[in-house]
């Protein structure tokens, strides 16, 4: 019998249309974890792979992260049969004399992250987690939380984690220093850059953490606490929703961009949190549709191991794309999507009919993250200015490609010494030895004028690249002006599409053009009059580099450029409908006028994410 990886997905076959469907999905996703609870129920160890933190913290992560969904389920009246395990696990995990003790926090520590889930659950379900504990066990838990909050939390969304612990301490009547809470709330406000957008800390980085962390935690706070911060969180969420909805495609897919994509349907956490906080930032039918369509998009993907445990990866198990802070329990931040289970079946989130996504008619400019969202049927494509990314593994791929697609995701490179074999989808790569390569890592300048993005970047200190990205739906145009003191080899890629077995895909490559036709998808790239000839190629990308498809094809243009100034220009197109080869493909956009592009650069505005941290919105 042939094994179907998608059949192991606990969401498979669930219509995910009603509150009951979502309740069943939560339990179906949780149940595969039961065999991995330790004897004392304080730890959940799912495999032998390591993260940068210690094993005890990883085991706590596996234990705590499901609480983001289980606690709302309990608050909404759901019947979960294993609360006794969680109460026992908390008692043992916070007992220094127990063999399953979680370990003491003695500095910045992964345990701080997971204690936020515990604090949240203690607020929503104290009758399940606090009341069953005896006096000594309560004292141990209180001491553990109080000790952990003394240490400095990371200068990003982590500051919310101590706030959540503090809310729990308040609700449980445990005395603590509230000035620490106020200080972190003030510092979190310092990450705000306007229009509903934050940075995730004092770095030039804006990604899904703004939705499933900064706003997610802020909206929970706004439900649990009433103060000026809560008021601001509600107002900012309304503004953010107007932009963030453009990150989602008609079928529920979202834009894969940035780090921590192994959290998967946590990307619906923002829409889920609006329901929890009772904020109609968009009509309820739209919010419901955005949330549930996203969950449904995941239901047929091979995202779980054979036992139903969520894997590290995105569209399939893939350690290559992971971060060094991903343990086997990390994917269970996906349970943030289940926050609507806390609201009753009479809430308008549940009683409203789903409303389809409002498709774009024209490009939409998102100045704060530095993106231009393009109207593409069956997809969402973001032209991206590129962001600060050197702290992350594969930061260039996750933050600095020229374009990102919900349907075609993006690829990470698997060998820094393989210029000849690199995927380079939506990137321009340079090599000075034919072996090693450089791509955009960070920008010296970023400007946005009308709907055109400009960036200036240097793959080496003595090489300067000026790049313009121009929407021309369903195409987009890229123009690069390169100044180099020595000859270089270049490779520029279009979008990656799935590759079939037995070489059954149709591949076409010639001077100045390359395109591939797969089972369902077309991807192509055309030169638009570069000052050097470029040769088309269909790259069979290394396996397991793309986030959605394990084997892919990438159309590329390659050329050797001389010293001095070179202009490279191309148009890129990808579409699900393979008939595009006889329609749009035969009508590429024209090469933009360089003088006009220079004029746009001169009048452009700085992208908010690229402004100096701490500057005024």
From TrEMBL:
Pfam families: DUF2264, DUF2264_C
UniProt key word Lipid metabolism: no
Keywords in alphabetical order: Plasmid
Source superkingdom: Bacteria
DUF2264 domain: residues covered: 18-356, 363-594
InterPro entries with a match to the protein in the record: DUF2264_C, DUF2264_N, UCP014753
Keyword flag Lipoprotein: no
PANTHER family given in the database record: LINALOOL DEHYDRATASE_ISOMERASE DOMAIN-CONTAINING PROTEIN
Protein's UniProt name: DUF2264 domain-containing protein
């Amino acid at each position: 019998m042939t094994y179907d990886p998608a059949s192991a997905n606990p969401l498979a076959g669930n219509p995910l249309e009603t509150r009951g469907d979502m309740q069943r999905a939560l339990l179906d996703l949780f149940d595969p974890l039961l065999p991995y609870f330790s004897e004392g129920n304080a730890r959940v160890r799912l495999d032998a792979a390591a993260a940068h933190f210690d094993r005890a913290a990883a085991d706590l992560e596996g234990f705590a992260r499901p609480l983001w969904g289980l606690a709302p389920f309990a608050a909404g009246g759901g019947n979960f049969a294993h609360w006794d395990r969680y109460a026992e696990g908390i008692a043992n995990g916070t007992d220094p004399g127990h063999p399953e003790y979680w370990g003491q926090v003695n500095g910045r520590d992964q345990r701080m992250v997971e204690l936020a889930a515990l604090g949240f659950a203690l607020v929503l379900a104290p009758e399940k987690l606090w009341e069953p504990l005896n006096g000594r066990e309560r004292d141990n838990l209180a001491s553990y939380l109080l000790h952990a909050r003394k240490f400095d939390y990371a200068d990003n969304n982590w500051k919310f984690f101590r706030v959540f612990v503090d809310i729990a301490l308040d609700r449980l009547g445990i005395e603590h220093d509230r000035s620490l809470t106020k200080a972190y709330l003030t510092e979190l406000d310092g990450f705000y850059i306007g229009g509903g957008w934050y940075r995730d800390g004092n770095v030039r980085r804006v990604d899904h953490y703004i939705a499933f962390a900064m706003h997610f935690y802020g909206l929970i706070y706004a439900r649990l606490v009433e103060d000026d911060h809560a008021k601001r969180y509600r107002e900012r969420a309304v503004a953010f929703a107007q932009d963030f909805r453009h990150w989602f495609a008609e079928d529920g897919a979202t834009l894969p961009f940035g780090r921590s994509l192994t959290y998967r349907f946590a990307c619906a956490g923002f829409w889920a949190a609006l329901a929890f906080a009772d904020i109609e930032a968009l009509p309820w039918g739209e919010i419901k549709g955005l949330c549930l369509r996203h969950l449904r998009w995941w239901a047929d993907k091979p995202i779980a191991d054979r036992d139903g445990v969520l894997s590290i990866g995105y569209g399939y198990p893939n350690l290559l794309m992971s971060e060094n802070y991903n343990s086997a329990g990390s994917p269970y931040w996906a349970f943030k999507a289940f926050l609507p289970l806390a609201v009753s079946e009479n809430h308008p989130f549940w009683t409203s009919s789903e409303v389809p996504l409002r498709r774009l008619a024209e490009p939409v400019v998102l100045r704060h993250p530095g993106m231009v969202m393009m109207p593409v049927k069956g997809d969402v494509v973001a032209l991206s200015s590129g962001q600060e990314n050197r702290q992350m593994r594969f930061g260039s791929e996750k933050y600095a490609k020229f374009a990102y697609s919900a349907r075609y995701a993006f690829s990470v490179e698997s060998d820094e010494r393989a210029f000849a074999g690199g995927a380079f989808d939506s990137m321009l790569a340079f090599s000075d030895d034919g072996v090693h390569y450089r791509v955009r890592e960070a920008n010296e300048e970023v400007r946005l004028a009308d709907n055109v993005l400009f960036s200036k970047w240097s793959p080496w200190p003595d090489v300067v690249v000026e790049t313009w990205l121009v929407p021309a739906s369903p195409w987009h145009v890229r123009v690069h002006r390169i100044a180099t003191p020595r000859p270089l080899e270049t490779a520029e890629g279009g979008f990656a599409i799935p590759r079939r077995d037995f070489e059954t895909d149709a591949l076409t490559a010639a001077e100045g053009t390359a395109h591939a036709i797969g089972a369902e998808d077309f991807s192509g790239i055309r030169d638009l009059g570069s000052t050097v000839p470029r040769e088309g190629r269909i790259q069979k990308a290394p396996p397991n580099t793309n986030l959605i498809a394990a084997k892919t094809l990438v159309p590329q243009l390659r050329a050797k450029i001389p010293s001095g100034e070179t202009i490279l220009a191309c148009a890129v197109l990808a579409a699900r409908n393979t008939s595009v080869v006889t329609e749009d493909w035969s009508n590429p956009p024209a090469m933009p006028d360089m003088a006009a592009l220079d004029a746009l650069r001169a009048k452009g505005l700085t992208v908010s994410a690229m402004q100096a941290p701490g500057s005024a919105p």
